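Quick log. Single chain, no ligands specified.
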Amino acid sequence: MGIEQLNVLITSVIGLITSGTAAYLSKFVREQREVNKANAQAQRSMQRDVIYRYFHKAVELRQPLTPEEYKHVNDCANAYRANGGNGTGTVMWERIREHAIIETGRTDE
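-> predicted structure:
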């Protein structure tokens, strides 16, 4: 086998390795995008659920929220917006802020 033939063989092998690696990476990136999209959708769904539960408690039932609950729903609303929520959770959060009664302390007698 001459030098030219060896160069052609090496070039062919490198081409096969490169194209295989590129195909693998392309498939991997596509799969990761789908996983990330599904994770973001699941996070939004859970965040919206938390916001709705506190909306129901604070706005519909007019029950007071503890400071911890208020902070929790605020954090979820911020994450929901940052995560690309469609606005439903944001509207509920605005209503919670308008109508929520925050417990300042308890006296158990």
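Residues 3-60 form the longest helix (58 residues).
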